[in-house]
């Protein structure tokens, strides 16, 4: 085995061609005689690398000019705090939708800074559906509305972009770049890179420029979006290697035909897996069918006593990291952009075979 089929939820699979390019560049990037990791972020070679990555990302997502793109650190979890620190302004309230563990964490963190109005929650049904927009109890004085379009752990995905009259803030850690997106519908989008973008250590923020500059004087410089925007994300040393690698992923995505093409492949991959699960009496997924995640597919076996045998057999078949999140158990196959259709085909074959042998 050279490369396993890797279904890890994050850090996750990266395209082999990207890793091979990084290997070729590792000791001597663009005839500089140095690795990307060894160069100053003020070096022209790195500045060009960084600018190209941003241009490619803007092309892929058709990001309008009135949005800033920030390449930060600290993960999506830091954004749980940076969003209220930067967007509250004089408001004392923010609206949050609770659809699972990641939105719950964002809510908990925001409570340090303001009154959080939970406009809707699907906790009553173990987060297996998205509450209908017409039932949301939006507040008049909220500074923004926050939600998580794809709950990585529960495998629940919004099948609509909420239409609200406040800036819409989205944690897209596990879905950004999986298909085309109308960025103009959002005030701010953030994503940790290690799911569908690149290696850990990089966090992307796409923010409408009129929302910059609202942080109060008590907000530390490193947590102020405007300072990062004004400095091209180089106020301090950025994660240069992660930025470079994400740039290679952006180039790879363009070579694949961009996000339209990726979206089609991702829909096919997810359909293959969900169709198989739904056609089986042995495997099941509890999420409302129209709101199932294209990226993270949790499923359980009819008999959880067989979980370990399932995982052991999968490992032997080079199908790795299928164990569900420690909080929910069962299985989860994360099928991000870099997980090829072949991986899902092999997984489905394995699942069918396991069912035949053990059910
Ligand atoms: C993984 C994940 C996070 C946490 O990301 P970190 O980079 O580890 O902080 C937050 N939200 C979602 C939706 C995620 O998938």
The structure class reads alpha/beta
Name of the top-level CATH class of the largest domain: Alpha Beta
Assembly state (oligomeric): single chain
- Fraction of residues in helices? 25-40%
CATH architecture assignment of the largest domain: 3-Layer(aba) Sandwich
**CATH fold-level name of the largest domain:** Aspartate Aminotransferase, domain 2
Number of helices: 9
- The average pLDDT score comes to 97
Report the major sheet.
Answer: 7 strands, mixed
Brief descriptors of the model:
Aspartate Aminotransferase, domain 2, globular, 359 residues, Aspartate Aminotransferase, domain 1, three-stranded antiparallel β-sheet, binds pyridoxal-5'-phosphate, alpha/beta, seven-stranded mixed β-sheet
In words, what does this structure look like?
Helix 1 packs across helix 6. The protein folds into 2 domains: 16-255, Aspartate Aminotransferase, domain 2, CATH 3.40.640.10; 258-358, Aspartate Aminotransferase, domain 1. The model has no long low-confidence stretch (mean pLDDT 97). Strand 3 (93-98), helix 4 and strand 4 (115-121) form a beta-alpha-beta unit. With 359 residues, the chain is α/β, with parallel strands linked by helices. The chain has 9 helices and 14 strands. Helices cover 34% and strands 17% of the residues. It starts with a strand and ends with a helix. The strands form 4 sheets. Strands 2-10-9-8-5-3-4 form a 7-stranded mixed beta sheet. The protein has a 3-stranded antiparallel beta sheet with strand order 11-12-14, covered by helices on one side. It has a two-stranded parallel ribbon with strand order 1-13.
